[in-house]
Amino acid sequence: MNEDATMGKMLSCDKVMRQLWDYLDEELTPERMSAIAAHLSGCNRCFPQYDFERAFLRAVRSVREENPPPAQQRERVMAALRANGLP
Ligand SMILES: [Zn+2]
Q: pLDDT tens digit string along 17-64?
């Protein structure tokens, strides 16, 4: 077992969930990033949440880059999420 996997097991799901957005924004230390990555890869509870938030963030970012009027942004985010197979 490597060190990252050990660190991942030490993190609680609550801690991972609280840092999920920072993780997705890559605002954590490299050690924390790899610890959370290790936890996510082995946790059936956190991974679906991570997967959803990652898809959501990607959809929001793609809409922001296109920079449509605000009224269209929500619709585009929802369309992008549906394209990812999310509700
Ligand atoms: Zn977890």
A: 999 999 999 999 999 999 999 999 999 999 999 999 999 999 988 888
Cα 58 to ligand 1 centroid, rounded to whole Å: 22
Distances (CA, A) of 66 to 60, 62, 69, 72: 10, 7, 10, 11
pTM: 0.65
Protein residues with C-beta less than 5 angstroms from the ion ligand 1: 13, 43, 45-46
19 phi/psi in degrees, rounded to 5:
-105, 10
Domain boundaries, the chain: 3-83
